[in-house]
């Protein structure tokens, strides 16, 4: 799968959450989408030619930093981790 196709699939995944997710999943999905979109946007602005694994690593570093800063409680963090695993499986 190309990076562009992966990004498209991830965006569709996030869009689909709006239809089927619980309120907690919507929150976690929106939070995760923010980190994902930030990584994609940064790569585009910097004109980086990333592989899927490199993009995922950037997202994960961002999430770890946020976790360390105490941005999420444990329940929300667990939801974000679950959804992130589902997004990565799209590749």
Automatic annotation (TrEMBL):
Pfam families: YfcL. Keywords: Coiled coil. Residues 38-65 form a coiled coil. InterPro entries: UPF_YfcL (IPR014987). It comes from the Bacteria. The keyword Coiled coil applies. This is YfcL family protein.
């Amino acid at each position: 799968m190309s990076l562009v196709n992966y990004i498209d699939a991830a965006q569709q995944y996030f869009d689909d959450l709006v239809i089927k997710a619980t309120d907690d999943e919507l929150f976690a999905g929106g939070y995760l989408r923010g980190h994902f979109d930030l990584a994609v946007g940064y790569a585009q602005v910097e004109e980086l030619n990333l592989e899927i694994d490199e993009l995922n690593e950037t997202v994960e570093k961002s999430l770890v930093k946020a976790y360390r800063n105490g941005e999420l409680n444990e329940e929300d963090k667990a939801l974000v981790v679950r959804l992130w695993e589902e997004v990565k499986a799209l590749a």
